[in-house]
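Appendix C: a fully annotated inverse folding record. The material below is reproduced so that readers can follow the format used throughout the book. The structure is listed first as tokens, followed by the designed sequence.
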């Protein structure tokens, strides 16, 4: 007897597929929905005006450094009144020489002048008497001319002695070395007891205490800088300075292809203010204006294997890794040169914990339903 021919067997064969379908539907209904990998907030790129700058390196240097030397020759330094780093005023005495010999020479010149003046007075009286006898004939013309010539000679000798006395007085005044301008003493070679010659360097003075930044700018970028351009400089000591371009060097180094840009600087308030020194290396930026740019927050950019990425949030709340090109930094925002559109929703932060295709929960928007839940609801 065939088992399938019985009514009971036929009924079981018909019920078995229905049971399998019911079990399949029940399994589909109980399958758990995928869990989001991370709860994130989204942002869109924004347009912002970013400053355009030109970075350069250079050294701080004295605006003008005056060399102060000895005018008198063969004198001994008796006193040095300033040291390196001292601020001095114009006309302030920096050092003194021993002037005993010069004072003696001055006194001798004064005595010689007095003698010459006395001789000149006697010669003038003789010439005056000779002129009174010129009409009477009591004295010959040659004798009269001798008295007049003696008078003029005595007057010339007085002038010579007076000039000699002035020269001695000038030498005596040179025993005191004066500051030619306000400024800061940057070097001192004068020592007490040293006998120096004429023109020997004694001090170096940074005039007005002014410093300048000598920035090195390549010839290709030189046209972007003009006199008056503002610059912000940071010295190696941490001191920050503000400056304006005073002059652009007239020549370009044929070896390095860079030109020197001279920038007048002044210190900015800060913890390291006043620590800048001539000869110190400094890095700075010239401010060249501003231009619009597409920017994103810095935490939105993830660096992997040397490339920059952001994570785009799709309508189904899954993320896609997008490669971007980063430009300048402005505060807490980054300029994006390529890879983004202004209407693209991206993960604001936490992208380092995500992978391409991950499901996320968006806290500042209504998350889309996962596909499995959407299928169950429709059913």
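Designed amino acids, in order:
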């Amino acid at each position: 007897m065939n088992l399938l021919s019985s009514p009971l067997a036929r009924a079981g064969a018909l019920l078995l597929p229905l049971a399998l379908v019911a079990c399949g539907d029940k399994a589909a209904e109980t399958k758990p929905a995928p869990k989001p990998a991370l709860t994130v907030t989204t942002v869109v790129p924004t347009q912002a005006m970013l400053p355009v700058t030109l970075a350069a390196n250079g050294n701080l240097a004295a605006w003008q450094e005056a060399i102060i030397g000895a005018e008198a020759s063969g004198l001994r330094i008796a006193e040095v009144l300033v040291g390196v780093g001292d601020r001095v005023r114009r006309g302030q005495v920096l050092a003194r020489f021993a002037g005993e010999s010069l004072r003696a020479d001055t006194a001798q010149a004064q005595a010689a002048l007095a003698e010459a003046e006395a001789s000149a007075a006697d010669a003038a009286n003789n010439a005056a008497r000779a002129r009174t006898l010129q009409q009477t004939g009591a004295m010959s013309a040659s004798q009269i001319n001798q008295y007049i010539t003696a008078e003029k000679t005595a007057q010339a000798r007085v002038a010579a002695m007076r000039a000699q006395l002035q020269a001695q007085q000038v030498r005596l005044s040179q025993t005191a070395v004066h500051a030619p301008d306000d400024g800061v003493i940057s070097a001192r070679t004068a020592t007490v007891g040293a006998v120096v010659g004429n023109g020997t360097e004694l001090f170096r003075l940074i005039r007005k205490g002014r410093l300048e930044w000598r920035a090195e700018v390549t010839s290709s970028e030189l046209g972007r800088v003009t006199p008056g351009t503002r610059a912000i400089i940071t010295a190696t000591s941490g001191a920050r300075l503000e400056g304006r371009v005073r002059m652009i060097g007239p020549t370009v180094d044929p070896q390095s292809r860079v030109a020197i840009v001279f920038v007048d600087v002044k210190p900015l308030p800060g913890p390291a203010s006043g620590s800048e020194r001539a000869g110190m290396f400094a890095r700075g930026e010239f401010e060249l204006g501003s231009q619009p740019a597409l920017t994103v927050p810095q935490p939105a950019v993830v660096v992997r294997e040397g490339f920059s990425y952001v994570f785009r949030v799709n309508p189904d709340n899954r993320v896609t890794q997008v490669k971007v090109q980063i430009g300048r930094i402005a505060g807490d925002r980054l300029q994006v040169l390529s890879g983004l559109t202004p209407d693209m929703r991206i993960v604001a932060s936490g992208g380092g914990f995500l992978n391409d295709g991950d499901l996320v929960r968006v806290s500042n928007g209504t998350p889309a339903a996962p596909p499995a839940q959407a299928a169950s609801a429709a059913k």
